[in-house]
Design brief:
globular; 16 helices; 2 domains; single chain; transport
């Protein structure tokens, strides 16, 4: 009894020792993550600006920025463009194409996997601005795609003007598909081959093996990849800005582009931070939806 009493302070100290090792990480997270979010949240309720009278005196204006945001038709257009871009390039494009490439590489020899993997990874490891310039040259009026089309006797198409949203969706698919491919490749490699062989012996077709064995087995990887790709796509800025600048007009103005224009072109930082919190809210809602689907 006495030994337990003597050892209890020492045991208590050991219980909280792990906290001392976490303090540097907690401090860094508070300084570089929590503090900027709180500061952004505060600035969204102010008239913060880079020029003009508002730049001289910072004032708390309450919900004026949010009222203006929800009454601004340009915000609704940007939200709609963001959802189209997100659905086309992330939910459909990267997810489906990444899975198909990974499925194509399943059970193939090492040489085939290396060649295909290297080709697909080239778009992912290339910096975003370099990818944007390459794809701008590909879809431009005098670009590679029009050169291919005209070689078959077809007329040129002004892709960046006629179908600008399609061009940035295809560009983002090319730039980000490799990430989904790697996730699905690892998931497919974990599917036990014995289950597939048993299904083949029982007379199952390839489609039945895919829909009744493979997809249910990797459903957690599908949901996780969907969430990661969605959050990554929501923040795409450089690719769109370098290719179209949000135009022509507002046809490719997504929320990151609109936020940048308001904050650094129109110098309305308070309004720009309010728009950034709207983008953050969309990301949180979609993340909660994906987490709920995993359960």
């Amino acid at each position: 009894m006495s030994s337990l009493t003597l050892n209890s302070p020492h045991r208590k100290r050991n219980t909280y020792t792990w906290l001392y090792f976490l303090l540097p990480s907690i401090a860094i997270m508070m300084l570089f993550f929590i503090y900027p979010i709180l500061l952004t949240f505060f600035y969204s309720f102010t008239n913060l600006a880079l020029t003009g009278e508002s730049a001289r005196e910072l004032k708390f204006i309450g919900l004026d920025n949010y009222t203006r945001m929800f009454q601004d038709p340009a915000v609704r257009i940007s939200i709609w463009n963001t959802l189209i871009f997100l659905f086309g390039s992330a939910v459909i494009g990267q997810q489906v194409l990444g899975f198909l490439i990974a499925l194509l590489m399943k059970h193939k020899n090492k040489l085939f996997r290396r060649v295909v993997g290297t080709i697909v990874l080239a778009g992912w490891v290339t910096p975003e601005i370099v990818s944007a310039l390459c794809l701008y040259s590909f879809f431009g009026d005098n670009g590679t795609l029009n050169a291919i089309i005209t070689s078959f006797g077809l007329p040129e198409v002004t892709w960046l003007f006629t179908v600008p949203m399609l061009t940035i969706i295809l560009a983002n698919i090319w730039n980000g598909t490799a990430f989904s491919m790697l996730i699905f490749q690892a998931a497919l490699d974990d599917v036990p081959s014995e289950i597939e062989e048993a299904a083949v012996v029982d007379g199952a077709s390839r489609w039945q093996i895919l829909t009744r064995i493979i997809l249910p087995y990797i459903k957690d990887s599908i949901t996780t990849n969907m969430m990661l790709v969605t959050l990554q796509t929501l923040g795409v800025f450089g690719l769109i800005y370098a290719m179209t600048g949000g135009g022509p007009g507002t046809s490719t103005t997504t929320l990151p582009i609109f936020m940048y224009n308001q904050a650094f072109i129109n110098y309305q930082l308070g309004y720009g931070t309010a728009i950034s919190l709207l983008l953050l809210l969309i990301g949180i809602v979609l993340s909660l939806f994906y987490i709920r689907s995993m359960k």
